[in-house]
Design goal:
The complex is a heterodimer of chains A (389) and B (280). Chain A has 389 residues and is α/β, with parallel strands linked by helices. Chain A has 16 helices and 12 strands. In chain A, the strands form 4 sheets. In chain A, strands 7-6-10-11-12 form a 5-stranded parallel sheet, covered by helices on one side. Chain A has a 3-stranded parallel sheet with strand order 1-2-3. In chain A, helix 2 packs antiparallel against helix 3, helix 9 packs across helix 11 and helix 9 runs parallel beside helix 16. The radius of gyration of chain A is 30 Å and the shape is flat. By secondary structure, chain B is an alpha/beta fold. Chain B contains 13 helices and 9 strands. In chain B, a hairpin with a 4-residue loop joins strand 6 and strand 7. The longest helix of chain B is centred in the C-terminal third of the chain and has 17 residues. Chain B is elongated. The chains are: A alpha/beta (389), B alpha/beta (280).
């Protein structure tokens, strides 16, 4: 029973387990729900899917599996298949779509029943009768924004059904992130250590010490535990990065509160012999990159943030920089830095699938030893995991 | 036992279903959702609706799984031993019962709320696997095993700050409380302010949902903020016309401090309004 459904979910790469499936069957046996597909949708989701990030995937898998089976609530008449055959398709312009009047659900059902009673033959392409391809709210393959789907495949995704609304689409892990989400992802990079002043009562130590002391109280203190990870942040600024200012700001503020030892520096497009800390005074207060290599130990973890979009010359040739004459190419500097700080990643705010179309992105990625990650929750998580290794 | 929402808690169809599945199968129910959507309230309301005692366990970053079962108060015993108190002989005097122990001992079935489970250490849920599965645990100090008389109904809330381990998730039902749509929101408000004037409510909801649409807000106003705001509107006796300014985009809603809690958000919002005015 329902084994195919379970395997279908598994096939669509939802992390479902046998135990959860058995729980679902148990719930069905105990009669938690009646005979409604909507209820089954909710119950199965609650039993099988444990992360709202997977809800959208589940919605799609559910729709695939149950397409054509769903019954219309309150509909007694049988609608002949023939009407619904995919014959004509009228493609409306967005303006025309907008013009279509949005009816409420109740009114829609009422109208539907009324027209069902009126209608006698097959109908296609018009704007009132039930059939295929038109802009009437009834039938399928049409373009009315709030239509009822009668069998067939949903093409414009506007029939009002729970799993087809895809409300959880933006909870998918691929989407960009807010400060809070970033912090959560950054938290993967933790390295707890006890350092500094001994201020916390070490209960176990005290008990052991007292016992050893033949019962005389022997208080033991120890330093508090905190995140001892050290992070060096290099941010690309200006030019093509202007499109990504907001997300970089968020990343920066999240890093600020998450890491106690955080040092940040700015660069433009690619790192050369200078970086700077204050973008307004970038020409006055430049810091030689070489100095940084000596100042920070190799236990610092290095994070570059940049879109890696530039002319390949800026990476490969001396004097390629758009701002000044550089004696050594960016690639040399990048190599020097990653050699000093072996734990390094590059975060790229551009979407991952677009990387392959930019030569410079591929170059940098190569120089970083494939350690380039997109600036999404998923990418950040992967990056932090990589840094934590 | 079936839960259908209460007089002061509006439960959507999917939520009641998840609760009833958890009640029937006696499995824990994990609740996630935006802050302020009533995750913690749910356990309280279910306990009230089913007329069961509620045990609450609020998790902090320092909470250990053991504390929910019992704690051995070594410091008291140490002090007593230094003072020569005869109580010291029996270790049972120094075992402090935790929330789960209390619930296991309860004469009637009960509801246990484990609030904000994600605040604790990553290993926290793993340490509770067996306890929540079998509803029993062993007290090492007194060598006794505590078994639940009735399996309590366990609600666990999470704000998604940490991922929960798979083994833990497999044992739970899961529900994500999504942000209520306009219709549900009207119901929720109706439950809290039955006397609220209809047009004021309509105007207020318009303003509220529009505000949630503003791009770039750090913290979108949630249900609990809306309820607070309405309370203020009522207290100040603000007429609905004020909310329906001629050009709503260019007016700051009254008492917006109740809706926007973040300084940057207020700035952003005021700047947007300022820009809207300029473009007029």
């Amino acid at each position: 029973m329902l084994v195919d459904f379970f395997l279908h979910l598994k096939d669509r790469q939802l992390p479902v387990s046998t135990k959860e499936f058995l729980t679902l069957l148990e719930a069905l046996q105990q009669g938690v729900i009646g005979h409604s597909l909507d209820d089954f949708y909710y119950l199965a989701r609650s039993a099988l899917v444990k992360d709202e990030a997977h809800f959208d995937k589940y919605d799609r898998a559910f729709a695939e599996y149950f397409k054509g089976i769903e019954a219309l609530p309150g509909m007694d008449a049988l609608i002949p298949e023939e009407w619904l055959r995919q014959t004509i398709k009228r493609h409306l312009t967005p303006e025309q779509q907008a013009k279509l009047e949005k009816l409420g659900w109740d009114k829609l059902m009422e109208e539907f029943q009324k027209r069902l009673a009126e209608q006698k033959g097959r109908h296609a392409g018009g704007s009132k009768w039930i059939g295929t391809g038109g802009s009437s709210p009834f039938g399928h393959g049409g373009t009315h924004p709030e239509g009822i789907r009668v069998g067939g495949k949903s093409e414009n995704r506007s029939a009002v059904k729970v799993w087809e609304k895809r409300e959880f689409q933006n909870l998918d892990e691929q989407v960009e992130l807010g400060t809070r989400n970033i912090k959560v992802a950054l938290r993967r990079l933790r390295h707890f250590a006890r350092e500094g002043a001994a201020e916390e009562l070490d209960l176990d130590g005290t008990i052991a010490g007292t016992a050893r002391n033949a019962g005389w109280l022997d208080l033991k203190l120890r330093p508090e535990r905190h995140n001892a990870v050290k992070v060096l942040l290099f941010l690309d600024i200006g030019g093509s990065m202007d499109d990504h200012v907001r997300i970089c700001e968020e990343l920066f503020s999240a890093c600020r509160s998450e890491f106690k030892h955080l040092e940040h520096y700015y660069f433009h497009n690619c790192v050369y012999e200078w970086v700077w800390r204050d973008n307004r005074r970038r020409h006055d207060e430049r810091i030689p990159t070489r100095e940084l290599l000596h100042r920070y130990g190799s236990d610092y973890k290095l994070v570059f943030v940049g879109d890696a979009s530039m002319s390949p010359y800026e990476i490969l040739h001396p004097g390629g920089s758009v701002e000044h004459w550089n004696e050594e190419p960016g690639a040399v500097w990048l190599g020097r830095i990653t050699e000093t700080f072996p734990q390094a990643i590059w975060l790229n705010p551009e979407p991952e699938h677009a990387w392959q179309y930019r030569q410079s992105t591929a170059l940098i990625r190569n120089l970083m030893g494939e350690r380039m990650f997109p600036l999404t929750i998923d990418g950040l998580t992967r990056g932090m995991r990589r840094l934590g290794k | 036992m079936r839960f259908e929402g209460t007089d002061n808690y509006v439960a959507t169809r999917d939520l009641t279903l998840a609760v009833n599945a958890a009640v029937t199968l006696q499995r824990p129910l994990l609740i996630k959702g935006e802050p302020g959507t009533g995750k913690t309230m749910l356990a309280e309301e279910v306990a009230a609706a089913l007329d069961l005692p509620l045990f609450q366990w609020h998790i902090k970053s320092t909470t250990k799984a053991q504390q929910g079962l019992y704690e051995y108060d070594a410091v008291s015993r140490l002090r007593d031993s230094q003072l020569g108190d005869p109580k010291v002989e029996d270790i049972a005097h120094y075992i402090v019962k935790g929330v789960l122990w209390q619930a296991f001992e309860c004469e009637t079935p009960s509801v246990v709320l484990i609030d904000e489970v994600d605040k604790a250490d990553i290993e926290f849920p793993n340490d509770l696997l067996r306890e929540l599965d079998r509803m029993e645990f062993h007290v090492y100090e007194t060598r006794q095993t505590v078994r639940a008389r009735h399996r309590p109904l366990v609600f666990i809330t999470s704000n998604n700050e940490k991922e929960l381990p798979d083994a833990f998730l497999r044992r739970c039902f899961f529900h994500y409380i999504k942000f209520p749509d306009r219709e549900t929101m009207t119901k929720i408000v109706g439950v809290h302010f039955p006397t609220l004037k209809k047009d004021l409510l309509r105007e207020a909801l318009e303003v509220f949902f529009e505000l949630r649409e503003v791009p770039g807000l750090k913290k979108k106003p949630s249900t609990s903020e809306l309820l607070d705001w309405l309370k203020l509107l009522l207290a100040e006796d603000i007429p609905p016309e004020v909310l329906r300014a001629k050009d709503r985009k260019a007016a700051i809603p009254p008492l917006h401090g109740a809706l926007l809690k973040n300084e940057q958000d207020v700035h952003l919002f005021e700047r947007l309004i300022f820009m809207a005015r300029q473009n007029r």
